[in-house]
Specification:
67% helix, two-stranded antiparallel ribbon, 15 helices, 2% strand, 362 residues, mainly alpha
Length: 362
């Protein structure tokens, strides 16, 4: 909205021409989301404390120290992040761009699912939300609608294919079946971030790192000159998704201020599902689905640790890890929470660098 106003004012004040540039608007999206959460964050936290009373229920089968140290902390902090991202995007993005609305649809849709799950947990004072099958069905419906939009906006055969990193001319064509593939990427990303969110500050920084990486990818893929130079698949219109990525980075920084150990608030499923879904949707839109497995490698490791643990216990009766997800395994091994969190941040940063290297290594 503000973007359109400033465009009209360029005839009066030439300095406003700077806001025509995607880089300028992305920077402003970061600052807007950050300031939004800094200003409204304390009020949102205070309101959630009043409404939730005892805060987020803590798993009885998790690390025992969590029951003592984290009891009473409010959840649904994802509302802060979503508000910052939504407001910032509305102000600085080109709202005539359908990619922007499709990604916002996934982000807010997954956020609504997570909010309902958090609401049931808080009101029932249990760690169980609503039916896992019903939750997955809702996620796939939302993700599928977004993928249909991406397929409609894009050009064949690229829009119905998986693009391989390190190779420009190789596409794995799925045709109409890409609807399921793309939806699986988005749903998988949402739930992978949800699994990772288990320690103060653990999930939000890797999300910001991935968002910053995909902001760069969206900018390059949506620019014909840069895409041609780097031998990337050009996807017209996806450059505007850099605004959402920027807003996500800014909102994440603001949230981290309150989520840093000891956390004043948890993001809950409201935040983790929506943020993961947002990253998955941007990956599908920019045709960098496989690269998400590298940049978001930490989320993949956490998810795989749960799958391996469950499969091993069902087949052999033995556990591979002391506790799953992976961060709880290291807790059980005696690592301090800040040590685990910071080391996982470092891993995320290194994986992001490896993922971004695929842009040049062709």
């Amino acid at each position: 909205m503000l973007y359109y106003l400033l465009l009209k004012l360029t005839t009066e004040v030439s300095a406003f021409n700077a806001f025509r540039y995607l880089t300028t608007r992305t920077g402003m999206a970061i600052l807007t989301a950050l300031l939004f959460i800094f200003v409204l964050g304390p009020k949102i936290i205070a309101l959630l404390k009043i409404k939730q009373g005892k805060g987020q229920p803590i798993r009885s089968d998790g690390p025992q120290r969590h029951i003592v140290e984290k009891q009473g902390t409010p959840t649904m902090g994802g509302l802060m992040i979503l508000s910052g991202v939504f407001v910032s995007t509305l102000l600085w993005a080109d709202l005539s761009n359908f990619y922007v609305w499709a990604v916002l649809f996934v982000t807010l849709g997954f956020g609504a699912i997570g909010f309902y799950d958090d609401y049931l947990k808080v009101t029932r004072a249990t760690t169980r939300g609503f039916s896992g099958k019903a939750r997955l069905l809702a996620e796939f419906i939302i993700a599928g609608a977004a993928v249909l939009c991406f397929m409609w906006l894009g050009k064949e055969p690229l829009s119905s294919s998986l693009a391989l990193p390190f190779a420009k001319d190789i596409l794995i064509y799925f045709g109409p079946f890409f609807l399921g593939v793309g939806a699986l990427v988005i749903v998988g990303a949402g739930n992978a971030v949800n699994i990772t969110d288990g320690l103060d500050g653990l999930a939000i920084v890797p999300v910001m790192i991935a968002a910053g990486s995909y902001g760069l990818i969206a900018y390059l893929v949506g620019n014909f000159v840069f895409a041609e130079y780097l031998q990337l698949h050009f996807v017209k219109g996806t450059g505007e998704l850099a605004i959402i990525c920027g807003a996500l980075v800014g909102a994440g920084l603001g949230f981290l201020w309150f989520n840093a150990p000891p956390a004043m608030i948890f993001m809950g499923d409201t935040g983790s599902l929506s943020l993961g879904g947002c990253l998955g949707a941007i990956a599908v839109a920019t045709k960098h689905e496989i690269v998400l497995m590298i940049i978001g490698g930490l989320f993949v490791l956490e998810t795989v640790s749960v799958i391996v643990q469950v499969a091993s216990f069902k087949m052999t009766g033995k556990r591979v890890f002391a506790m799953a997800p992976l961060h709880h395994h290291f807790e059980q091994k005696g690592w301090k929470e800040p040590t685990i969190v910071i080391r996982f941040w470092i891993i995320s940063f290194v994986l992001a660098l490896i993922g971004l290297s695929t842009l040049k290594l062709r």
